[in-house]
Amino acid sequence: xxxxxxxxxxxxxxxxxxxxxxxxxxxxxxxxxxxxxxxxxxxxxxxxxxxxxxxxxxxxxxxxxxxxxxxxxxxxxxxxxxxxxxxxxxxxxxxxxxxxxxxxxxxxxxxxxxxxxxxxxxxxxxxxxxxxxxxxx
Length: 137
Ligand code: FES
Description:
Elements: H1 6-27, E1 47-48, E2 56-60, E3 65-69, E4 76-79, E5 91-93, E6 96-98, E7 105-107, E8 113-115, E9 124-125, E10 127-130, E11 133-136
Antiparallel strand pairs: 1-11, 2-3, 3-4, 4-9, 5-6, 6-7, 7-8, 10-11
This protein binds FE2/S2 (inorganic) cluster (FES).
Residues 82, 84-87, 99, 101-104, 116-118 line the site of FE2/S2 (inorganic) cluster.
């Protein structure tokens, strides 16, 4: 059986530590957190459905979310914080949510990266339409 060297042991320990450090980040995906919208937003009307353009969306910068309506009657709520370096996205046009800082663009359908240096999609939050308004659930 081969012996493990001290260097190999240190390298594997560092890898394991890095993996553990990533766990809280992964666990926070998809739910409101300190880096996303306030938990106070859950159940609060964000926008009336008729305020959200079909094929577009609105950025609610103070609430740190973007509400989109890719097709009539289909709504999504994403984080408005760019996954590159944390700028707030600034516009929704042409089917993308755009970051002004380095040009990242995200799909209004699923938050996927369409262009730019962003390493990950925009996190999406669970939402529903209730009494004519989009709200987080
Ligand atoms: Fe958005 Fe760099 S912070 S592209």
